[in-house]
Amino acid sequence: MKKSLGGKIAFGVGGAVKDMAYTLSAYYLMYYYQNVLGLSPSFVGTVLMIARFFDALNDPIMGVLVAKTRSRWGRFRPWIFSGTVLNAFTLYALFAAPKMPETGIMVWFTVVYLLWGITYTMLDIPYWSMIPAAAETMSDREKMAVIGRTCAGVGGAIMAVFALLAVDKFGGGTNDREGFRILALIVSIAFLAGEIFCCLRLKEKRPETAAPSTSVKQMFKELFHNDQTLTVSGIIVLVNVATYITTNLVIYFFKYDYGGEMWETTYTLFIAIGSVSLVLGMVLVYPLLRRKKVSNEKIFKGSVLTAITGYLVLLGVCLSGASGKFIPLVIAGCMVFVANGLLMVLTTVFLANSVDYGQLRTHHRDESVTFSMQTFVVKAASGLAIFITGMGLDLIGMTGDAEETGEVIPQTAETLTGLRLMLTLLPILGLLIAFFCFRKWFKLTDKRMEEITQELGIK
Predict the structure, then answer these.
(1) Cα separation of 193 and 134, whole Å?
(2) CA-CA distance, 237 to 376, in Å (whole number)?
(3) Which of 24, 80, 252, 419 is the most buried (most CB within 10 A)?
């Protein structure tokens, strides 16, 4: 990609609208099908988990298809465009379930969500594959990762912050089902327009870095022999499971535990502050630390420990009674979200670096195959997190609102205690395992990457 302002803006816009659409699904799918439509949380979580197993086959294959693509528009833009068109339709259908018996809704959700996962893969893999394909130096790669992740974070933040307010507005305050349908329609249109702009302005730098003669079997072999791609992918799963458990449960926390008639406003304010913290972690804190010559490995360890500390503060606030203690909740949330922003940038950089590592070992650069792992593991983490959330909500006895009137049904003390423990201890466990995996198996330190780029002749 040309290092022009237009190209950077196009890349950023593509990331922003892509994550607006993704966040609508990742944050609110469980709430929509369980709280609004009345399906069992365990059923919703199980469907999502099965869909992720299906993506285990779909994502790497898509990465191979992208790597094999040759067209006058490049390898990546045809997939970004076609994937966006199809995914926009399925996103709308996902939040526009027709009125039918419960069994019909269950079938609708299962089929449409599987299609959503397939079509999202079609655009997400080629989008992120542009980073190592376009930016040859570590410095340029980090800048591209920051641009993409920051703009994606902004897009996701906009959706996370304003979704419930928009649903309430579009639904007239009483019809969340209609509110979600209209919101999904607007997001789908914006998604399509933004990615078309990205495809028109984003000019690929097209050295033939992928080997046309490489077989699918050989690509899979190379992928799974790249121990650093697998290590980073595992870390991404663990970090994202922790994040998604938090984002899936926090809406229930504010609605039933923090409570109050203005819970939606309080929830929105908390998510807004957290989203700003997430973006600040990506766009300000990370560049600042790098400018001060802090190594990526130290930033990673510090970020994980900061997030764990934030969750411990949140646990303390919850156990002492959360109602009315908004400032301590915000402090804990800021620590978690800033750390998450740093981890999102770092894991993207690490995965991009694993492409160089793989090239040194196998003499092939398979960007799209490698980044198919990112798409898969992020969706796998989302599916695993929402499966855990769904099973956990059923286990602690969480009940939805009254189906006909929408009246909020109070939860028992035992249910609220279970909710607090799930919200904090499960993410802490995931982050501790990620920290251990990083220390034991991660090799792509800043020093090692300098050696690899010198061996490959990259300036």
Answers:
(1) 23
(2) 9
(3) 80
- Confidence band (pLDDT; 50, 70, 90) for 78? confident
CATH of the domain at 184: 1.20.1250.20
CB-based contacts of 26, cutoff 8 Å, min separation 6: 244, 247, 382
Q: 11 in a domain, yes or no?
A: yes
Q: Is residue 209 part of a domain?
A: no
Q: Where are the alpha helices (DSSP H) in 202-322?
A: 216-224, 227-252, 263-280, 286-291, 296-319
CA end-to-end distance (rounded Å), the chain: 17
Maximum distance among all Cα pairs of the chain, rounded to whole angstroms: 67
Lowest mean pLDDT among 86-100, 116-130, 146-160, 389-403: 389-403
Percent of the chain with pLDDT strictly greater than 70: 85
Which of 384, 401, 137 is CA-nearest to residue 263? 401
3-state secondary structure 102-141: HHHHHHHHHHHHHHHHHHHHHHHHHHHHHHHHHCCCHHHH
- What CA–CA distance (Å, rounded) separates 164 from 136? 41
Identify the residue whose tokens are 């969480």: 398
Residue 267: DSSP 8-state: H
Locate 250 and state its tokens: 């926090």
Residues in the chain: 459
Tens digits of residue pLDDT in 274-327: 988 988 888 788 888 888 889 999 999 999 999 999 999 999 988 887 666 889
Q: Count Cβ atoms within 10 A of the Cβ of residue 195 and give its class: 0-12 exposed, 13-18 middle, 19 or more buried.
A: buried
pLDDT for position 231? 93
Number of domains composing the chain: 1
260 in a structural domain: yes
Element containing residue 392 per DSSP (H, E): helix 367-395
> What pTM, to 2 d.p., does this model score?
0.76
CB 428, CB 308: distance < 8 Å:
yes
- Compute the distance between CA of residue 245 and CA of residue 308 in angstroms, rounded to an integer: 14
Judge whether 381 lies within some domain: yes
Q: What whole-number distance in Å separates Cα of residue 459 and Cα of residue 445?
A: 18
Report DSSP state, residue 95: T
- The neighbour count for residue 3, using CB atoms within 10 Å, is 12
Residues 6+ apart with CB under 8 A from 174: 406
Q: Give the separation between CA 11 and CA 6, rounded to whole angstroms.
A: 9
Cα R_g (the chain), whole angstroms: 21
Task: Give the separation between CA 258 and CA 84, rounded to whole angstroms.
Answer: 38
In whole angstroms, give the CA distance from residue 107 to residue 96: 14
Q: For 405, which DSSP code? A: T
